[in-house]
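We both want to read discrete structure tokens more fluently, so let's practise on a single case. Would you write everything just below, so we can both look at the same thing?
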Amino acid sequence: MFADLYAGRRVFVTGHTGFKGSWLSAWLLALGARAAGFSLGVPTTPSHFEALDLARRMEDLRGDIRDRAALTRAMQGFAPEVVFHLAAQALVRRSYEDPAGTIEANALGTMNVLEAVRACPSVKAVVVITSDKCYRNEEWVWGYRETDHLGGADPYSASKGCAEIIAHSYFQSFFANGPACTTVRAGNVIGGGDWAADRIVPDCARAWAEHRPVAIRSPWATRPWQHVLEPLSGYLWLGARLLDNNAGLRAGAEAPFDPRGQAYNFGPAADVNNTVAEVVEALAVHWPGFKSEMDAAGHAGKKESTLLKLCCDKALAELSWKATLDFEETIRYTAEWYARYYEGGSGKGAMWDYTQGQITAYGGKAAHRGLAWAH
């Protein structure tokens, strides 16, 4: 497993107060890393970050990813060995309301992180997290590969495509001899502790916790749903590989692939591609008696992709990585986290032990199923 490569290391996480960033920070702390985060603020109330009381458990640095000077000072002050860049404006629909802010945060914010890395000689590895929506969506039925066209019709997708182009320019222009860097792309992640607006699982959790039906705007849109721990296991495994390019070989890879300067997709198995309606119905099993109100035509709101999934063959071939959980397990992990929260775990820090229990259980499943990173 990658635990021995993170124990005691200084790891800097941008966007640590967000949903994915807080789960990643919790896992890094469990691995024994010395973690610091840089974020503008806590994006939602409630939040996974506060449910775990992460401000007390890690170095909690606040600032705007668009402020290059402040970001550089924070990174230099902490002197990390590893950087995970997750800070972003993460909502498609919000990008229509604030396109300039979205592009500034996601594209120029990525540039600022890489500029800060250039000014921080302690950094040995960088993982830049973008999105599956960085691909120009053609509404085709097969998964997008890392070599497919970047771009998008909405400002969010365009900003993520720009972030990828900027990152790879920096990799080639400035980091050829170090630090080791890569970008990663993941599909729609779900899991306990997400309360962002305009996301189906948080919408269900909020509505059903208040005993009211949830409104579903695009029930027939399909997504490669995966639990948040799935891509995070890939990010951590890839970061470990960047730190130690022989890690993959020791875990059983057949060839010494060099991940530096590469892009990788992380997603579920190809047959896990369910509609929004199916997700709602599966979640409702864990909230018996609660209902939804669906826009049967699926035309509500701003334009979003209706069909989008990733091909993750490269991660399997080069990193021996694949997803651990099936759709039912993904839904159960998610629903049980929210159930514990609403049953009395809503105090600050109250969900730390339960979250760590899910991380441990997930790692155990991965080890039982023979996945390389879990051994």
Summary: Residues 246-255 have pLDDT under 50 and may be disordered.
